[in-house]
Amino acid sequence: MTPIVFGGCFGWLHPAAGNRGVVLCAAHGYEELCVHRQWGALAERLAAAGMPTLRFDYRGTGDSAGHDEEPQRLRAWIDSVHAAVRWMREQVGVREVALVGLRLGGAIATLAARELGDIDMLALLAPTISGRGYTREMKALAAFSPMPENAPAPESPDDIEAGGFVLTAETVEALKRVDLRQLDGRPAPRVLLLTPADGPFEKRLAQHLREQGAEVEAGPFDGFEEFICEVHYGQRTPEAAFATLTAWLRRGAPAAAVAHEPRPVVRLELPEGAETPTFFGDEARLFGICCEPRPEVADRAAPAVIFINTGHHRHIGANRMAVTLSRRLAARGITSMRIDIAGLGDSPAWQGRPENKLYDKAACGDVRAAMDCLEAQGHRECVLIGLCSGAYVSFYTAVQDTRVISQVMINLQRFIWREGESLTVATRTARTQVRDLGNEVTGALRRPDILLRLLKGRRREWSIVWGMARRAADLVRARFGRTTHTLFGVEGEVARSFRLLSQLGTDTLLVYCEGDPGLVELEVHNLHRDGSRIAGLDRVAVEMIDGADHTLTMRWARERLAGIIEAHLASRRRPAALPAPSTPRAANWKAVEAA
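and the corresponding structure tokens:
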């Protein structure tokens, strides 16, 4: 696959020699973030079936130019599809083009196809039929997303902030006018409609499209609920639906011909600078986006910044936060790189390492490969920024490599992660008292349904019980550790690592949202706060964001975080005498590994 840039959009071409090209129109917002990796797998499947396939980010989304608060977003999304179709015809040379739209992407693809008038096939996967219904769904998602009680009121009550993405009041009104059941004219001669439920809306859409002269084939979207959900909740590839889609798209395809050799543009020009897709690591298998400031504002003395994956999400970060921050830093003259560690986003997994694995120390090697790439460009020092599991990878990378002169660790859940643990277990066991854990276990065992599942050997329930037992042991060890530290000056491995980092001049900023479960870790590892600092460590600072949730879903919280990061980078200091960059801290790493 080849990264490309067209019309302010970033995309991927999955090449094939066929004469029927496919343009994938993605879902929007949080839904797109959840299915990104499998969306790429679908593109690979279609290309393997002989159809060159393009997937891309609409303007204002993903790695494309712009943001979701700009005016006329719906128009910009439709125009992005126009540009993608034009690029496929001009650069790849396909004779036919099929559009495939998922969720809101289905509505966008339909509207674009109707305007273009020359789309040969249109596949709609669980499409948004009514824009009014979609906005109601997003309002419900926003309303039911857990937010701290002291969270401030939304900046604009008419905007919808759902899952960390914004639909402005203007965009909401534009979406409310969309209803595919009232489409004037057929969007394509042949239409495939796969839906998770065969309800009245779906039947009316199929009937309306037939009345407009389209040949419509309808069927079930089996496995939809497991497909469009958070990866750590058990996301699965909808094999049956993808197989149906592939077979339908291949039907009647024109004879294969050698397509044009595209000359892709791979540099996205932005007001703040420019972004370039970058492959790095062994065999250049890993992927990232390098964001560079304009030459006239570039601060060549400043370290480069690396953004590490948040959870299972790709390099754009939760809420597209890494994109916003990297471009904001570029405006201040700072180069940054948004990376996908192996098995996440657009980076393939290494042999022997599973996909979508979080809190994995092996990922430190991927971050160091990104540092090698930046060092080859003249950036010998780096700052690492990671949220949750990204903060974990940042910490253990900083322990290994002296090129890391600063790190920002946001809402870290665990400093020590045991094999087989999950985010569900980590959240359920985030307690500060052994008594609380014991009460929760006792309460669970008194429930017949849970007890029955335990007796049947259900893995999820047993993992939670064992997680609580381990957490209780951690708390006991922590109390024992505080006593031995007070009496004998003996420190735990995590506190010792922080002390070594401080001595070597590596600054660490721990950012927590008030009430975040990860705050327990400061007590578990004897990292008591003294005001805004960890006691006794002058290079480890703590900043709190009151009223925000774990992934900083609301705009104001991300703006507050951006200000904190900018202030931290501006205040960074480093002693003159330090080991040469890239010198591994082998002795300390060995001790931490043993922990």
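(Above: one complete record from the training split.) The two ends are 40 Å apart (CA to CA).
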